[in-house]
Each structure stands twice: as structure tokens, then as C-alpha cells.
Amino acid sequence: MNDYTPPDGYRGALLERLVKEGLRTWSVVRATKGNAVFEGILLPRSAHTDDRILNLKTQDTYYNIGILIDDNVKLEEIGYREGHYKVPDVEAEYKKELPDVTLLGTGGTVASRLDYRTGAVLPAFTPQELFSAVPELMDMVNLSPKILYQILSENFTPEYWVQTAKAVAKEIEGGADGVIIGHGTDTMGISSAYLSFALKNLPVPVVFVGSQRSSDRPSSDGPYNIMNAASLAGYGDLAEVVVCMHGTTSDNYNLIHRGTRVRKMHSSRRDAFRTISDIPLGKIDLDQNITFFKNDVAPRQKGREDFILDAKYDDRVAMLYSHPGMHVDMLHGVLDKGYHGVIIIGTGLAHVGSNMYEPLERAQEMEIPVVMVVQPMFGYAQLRVYETGREMLARGAIEGGNMLPETAFAKLIWTLGHTKEIEEVKKMMQTPYAHEITQSEPNRGYSFFQGIEPGIDNFYERM
Amino acid sequence: MLDPNNLDWKALGFTAGLEVHHQLQTDRKLFCNCTTNLLSTVNTKPDYTFVRYFRAVLGEMGDYDAGMLVEYEKKYQVIYHSYDHLCTYEMDETPPFWPNMKAIEHGFDLAFLFNCSAFVDELQVNRKQYLDGSITTGFQRTMTVARDGYVPLSNGKKVRIPNILVEEDAARKVKTENDGRTVYYNLDRLGVPLVEIITNNEDIETPQELQETAYLIGLGLRTTGIGKRGLGTVRQDVNISIRGGDRVELKGVQDLRKFEEICAREVVRQHALIEITQELKNRSTPDEKRTPFIFVDLTHLFEELVEGEKRVLGIKLPNFNGLIGKEIQPGKDLGIDMIEKAELITGLDKRLMAHSDELQDEAIRKKGTNIPELILSLNTTNDAEIRTILDMSEKDAYVLALGPQERAIHALNKIQGRAFAAYDGVPQETRRVTKDLNSEFLRVIHGKDRIYPDTDTPPIMVEPELIEKLAAKKRTAPWSMVNCLGKKGFSLEEIGLIIRDDRISTFHELVVAGFEPRKIFSLIIEVVRNLSRKNILAESLTVDDFKAVLALEKEGKIGYSFIAKLLEYYLSGSHENFVAYWKENEEKVINETDWKPIIEEIVRSIPEELVEKTTNQKVGWIFSQFNTQTSFKFYNNNEVANTIRGLLQE
How far is B329 from chain A (nearest CA, A)? Predict the structure, then answer.
């Protein structure tokens, strides 16, 4: 037992006991408790759970059970059975006639699997593993998966945006016909917004993709999302940063959303991603047919000489959510702490309470940009309609147009990386670079159904 | 083939196990707050629909389950019918809510009832993969609550129950289309809490033991009130093997009375497969069997059958001549069984496949009326050509498939795989019982590798207080109930009727109230059934109604034979209960002074042809006359009967 390693995740008295008895992960254990006898494979324990419980995978059914171990329980090792968690490898052969697409893995559910034993995200998919799980990919594109990092989407800080943008630029300069970014879904829309600003004059598609049901589930949306993303990246006549996720709860088509106009609008549904204040750019169906709905889609470019990586950033940006009764020190605190810019998600047309005029004035004096966007998500910031808005404008508040809050946040970080000069910042924040502010909002851009509209029953029956 | 009606179960080494899935009586689903009540019909028009596809995923030990890979090969498109009273959990669009603890409590309650010795301290939710679309997640959430129980049988044997689980029910299948590739499911049942009670596969050695085990488990679920009642609330699978065979799971075995026939047909099948294996071994050399066979295009021999892009492909099965046509179940040969499997996996209609033994006049599929054209087109001429093209010897057989090339190859591939497996005896399969009580391939038996932990729900500590509370609870074990009823002279079949009509608690209460068990049985089962047959809603009769009516009989106010009529009168009115009805109508009881003259008159008018009959027949006739003349009058039966007998003697 020289190479003995205690099983993962156990603590306290039970851990001591397991060590004393020489029990390891994969030991087949018999626990005798009065008349009750439990036999099973010892499995690691995940954190934040009761530390008196032993995890056993029963030998007859492979079900996991938890057994409370106290001094009256007799433990013995009756065997050892090691598991090897590995997707069978499949070698993909390079096909000259297929486009070259790079998949950059950043963590998240499309390009990772969960380790059930510890609840941790397992290291990357190798190309072989990916092809084994989604063999259809092999006949669609020459896919080169590369792992950038393994992080959860809530930890995807601006520094990672920049690294990701640089990695994409490297692939484009290396001749990729398209790039896919596998990303956790929670903040996918923020990363896609930043990359929309940082990658200028794109020659090829840059497609963000993820899954709302993790790939360890037979019902995962991941396989179809990645196939659609691969197809879009390899063949789509498109050269923008987009998000490609399920269009409905069905596995029937994916929507293509502009990176700056997309928002996760449901915590768990497959069709959580929606284009806000506009219709989506296009869709791609199960047979990989691509349809564009907008006529201003930037087409794929042959040459790459115009492509510019402009991944500057300054992450000293705060974001505040305005509400009645908001204390002035919320904004004062931001100013005191030396932030370089603030996004305020204002009520209605982008208002704050009149008590906030005072810290706004202070921000104006300090030449700290305060950009106003709207809480209702749909529609424009309009500070000229009501008295409140005019008072805010007088104190230097910048109207953020119909930028989504998260897009405005990413854009201010990008902008402040270029200049801190307040008038220049204002000008850049109000200039659309990547459709983050649109000239107008089509009626269909607000398709927010309530489920009772005439004719909607037919729609749902065929959903 | 053995005679299924004359089997020596012991000599054949028959063993069986049972998996009982029973819905639990709870007001909400296991992992969401939707109702457990189902729609009146599975075909109810959906409020919305959606489409999904499924893929196999790895088990926790790092292997794909072989059964799951075959399921994936079926490439089902699944269309869900859903309804506004269901939520996004059933759609697999929302993570599970906290489990229904009442359902879990029921699981432990049953663990006590079925003598479990090992209770799980911390429940861990597991995922059991299903790729047939019956569950939107692609896995069933399920947890072991207790282990090592047993059911004692009347012959003294203890049938072990290794595991009791609480899990969610699957969706209901609506229909299939597109050669079975498109499957429709109704989501109303998905997530209803179930208990799964599994018996050891080796303990049951006769169909009678199997029947009794199923019966006792069902009885336990019903008498405790833990099981949900009504059609479709219980589903049973039976695992069967014989010596030299292997475990085969038969799904959808509902009617206890058919257990013996179903077991017999499976035993016969396994026995035949073992014989085939033996013969294949005799005919072959050891290295011969795994040589891959070649698919050959034979379209030119069947031009009249082929249209468009379709082809007829053939494959040689070495050593199978005469064996592929061997009957393995009444009315089914090995070839048909293989072809059914290929149909299920690939979607190629079984009528578009044929095997060489079907050239023979006595071939099974030639006996029916609707003989597939492909079989009819086989003749000695094209048979000889096929044999030449496929380079066959006399001991070889072939199988043909007609269809689009890709699908035909897929189907023949499956047949080749099944033919290889025939060298190894009985394949482990899950099979569906068909109407004729034979069975057909459903899927490769699901293995352990399809089980892996669910990371969506944290482990659930079982409170010791709950176990203490349940341990203290008084329970009447179903076997002692049966024993007790048996002593009162009721046959298993009669007990079965009480169970089937959900009258056991009523029965029990009336016995406790001091009424005679036979009379109770006759009233709550026979009388009620007869009334129901007349479309009278006898189900609305309550225990109190039965008590009241039996009390009247006991007190001699009405005769037993009048009870049915009386209840019919009551049920056709609108009284709140029987007591209220009786209060209103009690006065209609007529006394001896009123009825005696009428009886005397009838006795005097007995017709000639009755004079020769027995006393009982005469009494019967007199009663019927009397009932007609005294319509809607109550009288004391016993007194009337005694009077009639007295008058007749005179």
C-alpha cells in the first residue's frame, strides 16, 4: 500500500477511518450495520455534503447510495474495481475539400463534461473525444479543437475576453475559414459583445456556441448547437461575431444572433438566447441550410489584410441598477474607489431618482463617463422627453441608445482602453460599431408574446 | 420445439424475477409541482408540441452502455404532445424541483412492509438512460431507498427483494410514424412518482410462484393505500431464464392469469435457441462463425417487386439451412424473430425481408392469409440462382431485404449480428409481449453502464425520525391477509376479485363490523358488478351504505335476495345516502297481515307444469309472482319464504 491515496472529498472522522482501513476510491466495500449489509464501490464525495456519509455504487444495480458510518458500522475491503472515464477515441482524417474551422474551448457545457464523482468540470475534449461524441462533425468540416481555458462563464473576466479575441485573431491570421468559441451560456452575450468591438473588418464568421443542457445528458442541445455552429463557421457567407443557439425548445433550428444584440432571457430553456430590439440575423436548420433575415449581413471576405485586432480594455467599469430609494453613496462609492466609467441601468427611458443628481454632478466634475441604458431591455434611452432626463443630461449623463446593458458594459471597457477623454468616450459610446445601437427598431423586434394572442394556439401546436 | 402446455419447469431450470412498477398515491409529481392526474385519453389534442433527438452518454465507470448504443442506432425523432397544465420541467427546460418527500416516505413505508433489512441513510438521485424518447431528459431520475427485503410465499419460500426504488414515471406513447422512426409521446404521465420493487432473478422457480409474488406485491400496494389506483397504474416486467439460456426481460406482462402462458412461451423459445446453438456448433468449425458476410445485390431476380431506387440485397448465413425456419415459439420461426429485430432497429418493414426456409410450403409465414410478396416471389429457379451467386453450400441459408440500399444493408447487418449471436445461445434481450403472448425484440438488455449520478439534486439525508415513525406504524402484511381470507374459505381468484375492484378495505371494515364474510363478498363484488353491468353507478355505494343494507338483512327486515333490487331503487333516485333513502321508504315494508293473503292466492294458482318441480323451484316462481304484484314493497324475506314452504307442504 505504498501508493495509497485517500479517497477524494471525505473529511473529519470518516476520512480518518477510511485511511485507517486502507479504503480507496474504487475499493469494493462491505459495510455491515446490524442486520443491514451494504456492498458497493467506494466513490469520492462532493464538497458541502454531510461528512458522515460513505458513497457506494451498489454492485448489483450500479445505483449510488449514501450510508451513514459510525463506530458501530464494520467496514472491509472485499475487492477493487477501477473505472476509467474516457470517451472512446475516434481518429478524424483531414479532408481537403472541407473548410478548416477552429473550435476554441473556454469551458462551459458544449466542450466539457462533468465529473460526476466530484461535480467538477473535466479537462477538455480532445478532437478524438469530440468526434466520438458528435461523429457527424467529421463529415462537415475539418475541425481543430483547441483549449484556451476551463472556466465557468461567470468567471469570464475582461482579461479573458481579450485573450479570447487574440486567440481568434491568431486563428484567422493562420487561415481558418471560421472560428467557433465554446462558451458557458451565462455570460456568452457579454463576451460576444466585446469580441464584436475587438475584431474589426472580420473576414470570416466567429461563432459563439454553448449548451443549455450539459453534454452529459442524452437530451443535450450541445451536439446540434455545435454541428450548426461548425456549419455556420465553415460555410456561412457571414463575417461577424454571432451567437448560434437553439431557436425554439425543439431540436429543429438554431438562431443566429448578432454578438451585440443578444441576451440570455431564460435561466434554463434551450431557446434562452434572443435578439433584443431587432429580429435575429438568420437561422440554420437541421439540414444545415442557412437563411438570413437581415439584409445588412457582412459577407465573408477572401482577403484578410483589412482585419484588425483591436483588443484594448480598461476593466475599471462599474454597473449600477437604478431603483427607487437607491442611496447616493452607491454612485459616490464607485467614484470614490476610482472607477473610470459607470453604466447605469435606468428605469423606463433610462432615468435615475432626483437624489442621484448630486453624485452625477460629481462624476461630471471628475470627467467620469456615466452611460445610461434602459431597464426594460427593449427600446432606447431617451433623456430629452421628461424633466428628469433633461436634468440628467445637464449633469453629463450619456444616452446609450438601445444598447443592451451588458453590451454597453463591454463597450465602455473597450472604449476606455482607447481613451479616457470624456468627449471622445461619449462620441465612441454613441457611435455604432457593431450594430450595438441601431438606427431604428422594427415592430417585430419586440416579439414578446403573452401566450393569449389570437392565432397563437396554432403557433404552439406546431412549435 | 417443446410443447408449451407440458413443461417440466424444474427439470428445465426455470427461474424468474419480477420488476413491479407501481404509481404512488401523491398529489404532485416527483420532481415538479404538476398534478399526477392523467388526461382521460392519451390521444388528447396537444396544446403544444416539440421535437427532440437523443444521444448515448457515458456511464460513471467510463463505458457506453451497449444497450444505449443500439437505442441510439434506432435514430428516433421524438415529437412530444404537451399541455398547458404541465410545466417546463416535463419539457426538460427547467432543473428538478425539490423531490416529493411524501413519495419517498411511501418508498420507506413499503420497505418496512416487504421486510427490508437495509435502509439507505442518504438518498442519491441517479440517472438511468432511456433514449427511446419516453423521458425528455433522456434519463429517468431514480433512487434506491432500501435493500434486502423479501416476500414469503404460501409454500414457505422467501422470494428476495434486493432493491426498492422510488423513481419518476415515463411519458405515454401516442403513436409511431415513418416506419417507427418518428415516435409521439404524451407528457402527462412523465414524472408521476413510482415505486419499483425488484425480486431476485433466481428465487422464483415456477410460474405459480411468479404469480403469487406479483399478486402479493400488488396486494401490499393496494391495501396500504400507497399505490395509485386505476388502469395503467401498475406495470410489470418479468425476467426469465432456463438452464443454459440467459436472462430475458419481458415487458408489459400485466395480467396475472397469463403469466403461465407467457413463461411457457419464453421457456420454449430459449430451449429452441439452445438447440439451434448446439446444431450450429455441430455444423461449423470454431473459426468459421465470425467471418463477416457480404451483402450482394440480387435486384435483377426480383424486378417485378422493385421500384425506383430500391434494391433487393441478400446475405448468406452459413450453417443456418433448416435452422432459420425452425419454430421457436408457436407460430414464429428463428428467421421471423431476427427479421422483427431488424425491423425495430432499422425501420425496414418485416414484410420486405424473407429467409430461405420460407421457400418451403410449410413455412410459418406462408400459413397466414396475407403472405408478403417477397416470400411469394421465392421459387426454385431464383432460389437456385441466389444460391449460386452467394456461393452457398447445402447447409447454408440466406436472408433477403428489399428497400433503399442503405436501409436494406442496415437491416441485413442487424440480421448478421443476430446470426452471430445464435452461436452463443440466448441473447440477453428486453422483449415485448405481443398479443398472442409470444414476444418480440424491443432492445438489448439495458446494462449497468446506463446508470450515473444526477448532479441536479443534492443528496437527501433521511431523517431518523421518519424511519422511527414508519417502524412504529402498524401494517397488515398482504400474505397474512391472504392467509386469513383463505381460512375464511375464499379462493385466490375470489381474493383477486376483491383486490381488482379495490374493495379490500371495504371488505375488511365490514368483516370487523361483524357481518358474514360470504355475504359481504357477494354484496360488494357480485351485486355491485351486476348493477354495473346494467349501467347503474354502483361505484358510488359507500361502506356506510353497505353496512346499512347488511344490517337490515341481519335484523331480518329484508331478505338477502332483495338487496340487489333495493340498491337498484336507491341508486336510481337522488338520496344523499342509503340510510336517508331507507328512512323515507321504510314504511313501504308490508306486514304479514298484508302479504299473507296474496301469497295464499298465488299458491292456489300454481300452474300444472310446476306441480312436478322441486320445492325450491316452486318457491322461486311464487316469489317472482309476489314481487310483481307487490312492486316497490319491502317485506321480510325469511318470513315470506317460511310461509310459502308451510303452505306448499299443506
Answer: 31
